[in-house]
Amino acid sequence: MVTPVGQKEQAPTNAGAGSWLKGAGTENTRPSRLTPHNITPEIIQSEDQVGQAQLEEIERAAQNKSGDLVIILLGGRGAQAMYRRVGEMARTNALDELLGRLHVFTQDALAPLRMNNALNFVSDFQRLLGEAFFRKIKSFTPMRTDVDDLEAELARYTEKLESLGGSDLFFLGLGPEAGAASHLAYIKPGSGATSEDFAGMIPIYPSVLDHHITKFKAGGATVTEADEAECRAATHIMTLGPAAILSTRRIVQSIVDADTAPAKRESYRCMLETVLSEDAAERATQLDANPGLWLRLHPNVRSLVLPNVLT
């Protein structure tokens, strides 16, 4: 496994369109030293079954590790069925032992944005998971989007994640971009993120705002005109970077919304089929142009998709 990221530089370094917090101890995570892996899609027949598979992943991770478990949640549609299921179970005692071991993190955020805006990931998690879940878990750490100093907030967030030893389980999706590229978390094409970058901030761009708002509405969020107007006025995206993805112990990807985001079909196929160059410079260019390809450099990825993703 990839060695978890250690201490960071105190100040972000600017690369491309992004401002990134670098991690130390990442020599072995440089793309030129990582072996590309093929990812085999696992076709699941319904969104509810995807949710059950994701819950089983958390239960399996808990069985394979003693003590606390650190997981990073996926926003949008990909894990909503799991969140509803877990939320229902949290109102009973069925998951109490597991929930009591969980440190839960979010993976990205639009900023600035009120924490109770319906288009904030935290509001969506609260809606789906419910009060009992948040009362029973060990900790919940979002990226706060209502602070004056966003860079200091991002540093605080990453320091807490690193202090817990990094993540055991990272839930990810795949966001469509032009030319069959894709964003991962919210690492967008051309943002300059490298394998040493643990987290960062990038300027907002209209296509991701449209995708973000569409997926929240499709997932059942009640969005007011004021919520949407505030969201469209956001200036930055806060996101975990490639080093956080490469250092997690296991990744579970899910794609359940190809009907409402049909461009994901081509982006997913491109992620699966692209041949990663053996030349270090050329590979770095490929990864910056199509950040979804970072998944191909992790040795422990499970990719859950509905049948319509491949049609």
Description:
It is a single chain. With 311 residues, this protein is of the alpha/beta class. It has a single domain (13-310), classed as 3-Layer(aba) Sandwich (Rossmann fold), CATH 3.40.50.1360. It has helices at 47-63, 80-90, 96-99, 121-136, 150-163, 206-218, 225-232, 242-247, 263-273, 280-289, and strands spanning 13-15, 18-22, 41-43, 69-72, 102-105, 108-111, 139-141, 169-172, 175-176, 182-183, 197-203, 236-240, 251-255, 301-305. Strands 3-14-13-8-4-5-7 form a seven-stranded parallel β-sheet, sandwiched between helices. The longest helix has 17 residues, at 47-63. The chain is globular and about 55 Å long. Mean pLDDT is 90; it is low at 1-16.
What is the topological layout?
Elements lengths: L12 E3 L2 E5 L18 E3 L3 H17 L5 E4 L7 H11 L5 H4 L2 E4 L2 E4 L9 H16 L2 E3 L8 H14 L5 E4 L2 E2 L5 E2 L13 E7 L2 H13 L6 H8 L3 E5 L1 H6 L3 E5 L7 H11 L6 H10 L11 E5 L6
Parallel strand pairs: 3-14, 4-5, 4-8, 5-7, 8-13, 13-14
Antiparallel strand pairs: 1-2, 2-11, 6-12, 9-10, 11-12
Helix pairs in contact: 1-2, 2-4
